[in-house]
Amino acid sequence: MHDMSTHAVPHGAPTSFIRKHVFSIDHKVIGKQYYALALLAALIGMVLSWIMRLHLGYGSLAIPGLHLLSKNGAPGDVMTPEYYLQLMTMHGTIMVFFVLTTAPFAAFGNFFLPIQTGAEDMPFPHFNMMSFWVTFTAFLVLVASFFTGTGPTLGGWTQYAPLSAIGDVGGPGEGLGVVLWAASIAIFCIGQLLGSLNFITTTLDMRCKGMSLMRLPLTAWAWFITSIMGLTAFAVLMPACLLLILDHVAGTSFFRPSNAVINDQVLPGSGGSTLLWQHLFWFFGHPEVYIAIVPGLGIVSHVLITNMRRPMLSHRVLIYSMGALALLSYMVYGHHMFVSGMNPVSSLAFSFPTLVITIPSTIVVLIWLGSLYGSRLRINSASLFALGFISMFISGGVSGFFLAQPSIDIMLHATYFVVGHFHLVMGVAAMFGIFAGTYFWFPKMTGRMMNETLGKVHFWMSFVGAYCIFMPFHYLGIAGNVRRYQAFTDDYLIPLIPVHKFITIAALFTGFAQLIFVYNLIHSRFWGKVAPNDNPWEGTSLEWSTATPPPHNNFGDKMPVVYHDPYQYSVEGASTDYVMQTSTEQLKNTDEEK
Amino acid sequence: MAKIFAVTIILIAIASAIPIVMHMWPMPQDISTHGYLIDEQYTDTMWEAGLSFLASQFLLAFFIWKFSSPKPGDKIKSFPGGAKGLVIAAFLLVGTECLALGVFGVKAWASVYFTAPSANAMPIQVQAGQFAFYFRYPGPDGTFGPLHPDKISEANANFFGLDTTNDPDSKDDIVTAEMAIPVNREIHLLMHSKDVGHSFYVPELRVQQDFVPGLDVTLHFTATKIGKYEIVCTQLCGLGHYNMKAYLEVMSQEDYDAWIKQQAALQ
Ligand code: HEM
Ligand SMILES: [Cu+2]
Ligand SMILES: [Cu+2]
Known about the structure:
The complex is a heterodimer of chains A (594) and B (267). By secondary structure, chain A is mostly helical. Chain A has helices at residues 4-7, 17-22, 27-58, 66-69, 81-117, 125-144, 176-205, 218-249, 274-308, 315-328, 344-356, 358-372, 381-403, 406-412, 416-446, 452-478, 497-527, and strands spanning 261-262, 265-266, 568-569, 578-579.
């Protein structure tokens, strides 16, 4: 057990506005800043998806005001083919990096990891502050590419070389746009590396008296595992982006092949390889999708346990499964490259771990289902989104069976089947995790409650809407509908256009529901009902034993001491149906973790 | 609320399955000799994944329905078999499923990638470039002349960069914008990219293969059904990506012979 006083970095509460709200070193403020950034990014990403969907469903439809965003990209408010790809690239990049990595991991993790471990703050608070501002800078750099003459890059969030490496001859945005993209991502990586370092050391070194590793809540475990992935994955993406920038500004040839010809001109460059980029990118990219989803697994477990009034069937099995997911995620990345031209034997080698990784995922789902059995389930916005997450995670997971097999991937690779798969399992599921966490923790973060009725309306519209958008994507993919197309002009794709129209309407409907959420969030923040007490959901972990919102050093003058497992609900013989970790009540007949 | 939720989950699960069961938007027909292996693999997977999908969604819905309105005195019950049982079940069910799919899947994959083209397979070269495919047939001598990237000229319609004055092998090469092949004859496709990454996808032929700039990639297949199909690009290659396509005509041997003669005359 660690004694706080030897590790704590004492810092008094700041007094000036700037130190309190802008350049704050308080992990809670930083967590909220990350949340705000994710919210802004999600709104931008969503509006981009609306514009894309309108274009896909209704072709040359003019979208009033679009020319204000780009005169070249949307002359007369009608989108050009290249502008579709540019917006698509920004949509994907913003969603993956600035929403799915920041909200469940950096935002909630920053706010709650130190509290759940019983720490006063993170061990390197200045690094932590830097991590947010570096990430924010990365966001500005990315958004800046909207306002360059040729606009953002059109190469997709995967930014495959050599298209990304040859400069403006490749197409609009392939020069400056790519450089800004790669710079933004490289900066982003620095921010996440700093953050991960803090998360790991907080978990290992800052736990309060009595808080053994196995007594950490599942959320803390999820963030801990995610930060280890972050440390290793972003450390690979950053150099890859730097090499890509060098190809643009220093005349190097990491990703430029020999003898590429565009406009009858042989381009400079020799020996560079697209496969090198793909290996580097996916070595990061696959762990990245787990970075996006593992915090969600933790949040959903945490929210469900509180609302089921019982611990999961096994705490340890869930932790080991998340660990196994993290470990395996490095061995499967080649499943993105089955038909890339790499050695076909490698495809089989990458296919087996991909099939194997479905085992820990299945275990997680079965443990959730088995724990629901015989529980005393409470239905509220938070638990609805947590249960919705399970449904989405299942739906998105089963399509993985298809894509994991190279022979079937021959048919489904680069089709809408893939788009349906990753949106359900990573996009929607992770968003549902964020929503569950928001409805659940909002009182602790702000001292006020969110409106439950609006929360439920938000849930119903999102749940039905998301299925209406993303299930049909699978059918399109099976019929051979290629992705990253701005229009469907091939003979065999034309009959599919009505499906695209349906999806567009569903997307607008679902998007509207998100506006209800934003309204609820902002309204409740300022005018919501004041939280009735420090523990409105009758939870057990440390965040519920401190004040609401928590004081600057998290626990006031008295550091917590932990006596119990994180989830002692419905323990026989206890005075209430929940026993908090800090409770000194003696429990009979339990085999608690040490 | 919980009961409506449970019913909604079940309705969504059933509604999701209907288009699959009814074949509303089916896979394009298969016109290849190896495609049936892929299709069998796909159908097996659909059964296994589809049943897992329905079973777990139903279970989720059922538990939400059953356990969301506990009476005051209700005790927490534990799932029979507990965590251990579920872990074992996951290993057994998913483990065998994975093993089965993985092992059988090798056969389909091997049929495309681990067999060499037969000796009398017909070689055709395909070049992908922003935003068109071009095809080259070796002509009567059966040999492709060498490529000279610096000689590529769209204006002179020298798409491959051939030097017909100095390279004798190139003199009879036939370059086309459309791909025609005889039915039931194995094709050995030699793929290279002129500029960036592209891909060669013919859903009916059950092939998809990326072009790798700087690397020669090959593919072989046999088409079994006369008809006109589309070759589309599936690797994001720039602003015209959506429009990058060519037609594949599978012809009888006689039609093919006439076609190639006609193309040779046009060179
Ligand atoms: C309002 C809900 C959303 C809609 C309607 C939507 C729609 C789309 C569409 C139409 C595409 C382009 C597909 C293509 O042309 O290949 C796309 C791509 C993408 N979306 Fe979404 N999306 C939504 C939410 C999200 C979320 C929450 C994420 C977070 C993971 C996300 C991540 C991506 C990614 C990574 C791509 C790939 C971009 C690329 O191909 O480079 N989307 N989305
Ligand atoms: Cu992956
Ligand atoms: Cu292409």
